[in-house]
Amino acid sequence: MRVSEKIIEGLLWLSTAITILITISIIWVLLSESISFFRVVPLSEFLTEKEWTPLFADKKFGILPLVAGTLLTTAVAIAVALPIGLTIAIYLNEYAHDRMRQIVKPLLEVLATIPTVVYGFFALTVVTPFLQSIIPNLSGFNALSAGIVMGIMIIPMISSLSEDAISAVPRSLREAAYGMGSTRLQTSFGVMVPAASSGIVVSVILAISRAVGETMIVAIAAGQQPRLTLNPLVPIETITTYIVQVSLGDVPRGSLEYKTIFAAGITLFVFTFALNNLSFWIKKKYQEKYD
Amino acid sequence: MLNFKLSSVKLNAAVLLGATLMFSACGGNNTEEANGDGAGSIQIDGSSTVYPITEAVAEEYRAEAPDVKVTVGVSGTGGGFKKFTRGEIDIVNASRPIKDSEASVAKESGITYVELPVAYDGLTVVVHPENNWVKDITTEELKKIWEPAAQGKIKRWNQIRPEWPDQEIHLYGPGVESGTYDYFTEAVVGESGASRGDYTASEDDNVLVQGVSTDVNALGFFGFAYYEENQNKLKIVPVNDLNDANGKGAITPTLETVKDGSYAPLSRPLFIYVNSKAAARPATVDFVNFYLDNAADLSQEVGYIPMPAEMYKEQKEKFKQFAESAGKNQ
User: Fold this and answer.
1) What whole-number distance in Å separates Cα of residue B195 and Cα of residue B184?
2) Is B124-252 the same fold as B13-120+270-328?
């Protein structure tokens, strides 16, 4: 009995250790490869140079165009997902009947289960042609269409996390608001949303972090041209797309070109790591307590 | 990179997906280790541009001689020559002639070879079908667009020709691993491998077709086969090389103009190179003869331009002599 207990305990410990080990080794690979990259390319050039052409004869190693592309698609995605996701969360919490809620919630979750490659082709073959009928000069590959579709993809993330946050607000607050004669709308936006704001902000930050790391949609629909621009109508390239592009090509292992993907990877990692920690911190610091 | 049979389906989501998957499947090194001496196996690698022809030939040949195992890999013309000059493969697909540096490596490792042109390709400059301002383009203008100095500077159509509109120009072209890129930069910029880097560069030509066909401000270039497959979605741009000796004015690549060389400087021959050790084996001799017999039909089928019949005859004769002397030296 005691022996089998020990074995189970050991197995549990092992599986925890494996996850941690894998994370550590990924970070280690990223660090070691990018350190040898930064020995050749100074960090100052990496961060300030305005062009990114590591595969060409005239090599420039400025990460800014890729960062701009990533932030641009992310901004479009959040601009779509935040209002829609928050509206859905409020609707489900304050307005919808229980039955409505039981139908809508699982339907929303379906959005999160669609493979991202499908979203990518949806952007390329449906959304882009539709947008082109409104904006004639829109390129076939562009940040706008990829961003909108990415926004649709992260709606469930914002709506369900925000809904959890709103429904965690104590009943007494809502009842007090109604007692003061507030309408539903006033209650929602005047009391419930502010009370749940830390949870909502966290949901948005997690959604941003998801959008920054999203790969397939932007690789398919946003283009492959590093470009330092905030214009969502032209082809751009995100950090993730660049990594895909280079790892599929015939770039020789160990070369400087090959190491660029680790430098790009660590940039991405720093972004998502910072965002996740920020959300953790906000959650701890600003959570409103009503006891 | 892709089999043309695949892209002959209308380019749509499915093809792009297939392309992406195939691309990842053949990215990297997927040819088997060449053993070189197995009488019943032929190892081929190299250019992605020549790949469709060789693959079509190999496919037909499988019906002819099922016990000979022909494997065709794709590692770009440069990568193919690297393996060829080390004696790792029997035949290399090449979208440009061998470079001096590569030839000297072959000499060092004691490899003799024969060069056999198998078809022509016309590098095709294309724009969006609704682009109503580009009627033709000169090689000087192409140089102005693509040379390294253009990077970050030439960004609008009216910078190239003042009467063209004041709109952004979006460029699409093959990536640096491609022989097509080498050839284009050599022919247009004057130095192989010298170009601007701020354009949509993809080793997957279907991505380029998709990009140009959905972007009014686009200009791109790729092998003629990809234009032929997607004629209704692209507008071809006649190229003027400013040299009336080989055809007056701007010339559109067609079967005829590529064949007679008036579509200069963007028409180019495609080659295979055969290792002499491989040519001493009957299986390779049989395969290469089958290749030259069928190259005219099959190259046209996959979208390239066949050479005149007498040239194939000459190549067969050239190969016969080469194989005979290779056999004697064995």
Assistant:
1) 9
2) yes
Rounded to 5 degrees, φ, ψ at A71 are -65, -35
Question: Which residues have a Cβ under 8 Å from the Cβ of B20 and sit 6 or more positions away?
Answer: A220, B204
Record the tokens describing residue A164, joined without a space: 């959890």
Flag if A249 and B27 touch (Cβ within 8 Å): yes
All residues of chain A having their beta carbon less than 8 Å from the beta carbon of residue B176 are 55-56
3-class secondary structure, A168: coil
Give pTM, 2 decimals. 0.76
Q: From first to last of the 330 residues of chain B, give the pLDDT tens digit.
A: 333 333 333 334 333 443 343 343 333 343 333 444 445 899 999 887 888 899 999 999 999 898 899 999 887 787 888 889 989 999 999 988 888 888 999 999 999 999 999 999 888 999 999 999 999 999 999 999 999 999 889 999 999 999 999 999 999 998 886 778 888 998 999 888 889 988 998 877 888 999 999 999 999 998 888 888 899 999 999 999 888 777 788 999 988 888 887 888 888 889 999 999 999 999 999 999 999 999 999 998 888 888 888 999 999 999 999 998 887 776
Q: A140 in contact with B at a CB cutoff of 8 Å?
A: yes
Class of domain B124-252: alpha beta
From B97's Cα to the closest Cα of chain A, the distance in A is 20
**ipTM of the complex as predicted:** 0.77
On the CB side of A254, how many CA atoms lie within 13 Å of its CA?
A: 0
Collect all residues of chain A within an 8 Å Cβ-Cβ radius of residue B13.
Answer: 121, 124-125
Structure tokens at A232: 């969502």
CATH superfamily placement of domain B13-120+270-328: Periplasmic binding protein-like II (3.40.190.10)
**φ/ψ bin of B306: left (φ > 0), alpha (ψ from -120 to 50), beta (otherwise):** beta
Helix, strand or coil, per DSSP, at residue B43: strand
Say if A61 is an interface residue toward chain B (CB within 8 Å): no
Are B304 and B253 a contacting pair, CB within 8 Å? no
Of the candidates B22, B7, B1, the one whose C-alpha atom is nearest the C-alpha of residue B226 is B7
Domains of chain B by residue range: 13-120+270-328, 124-252
> Any chain B CB within 8 A of the CB of A235?
yes
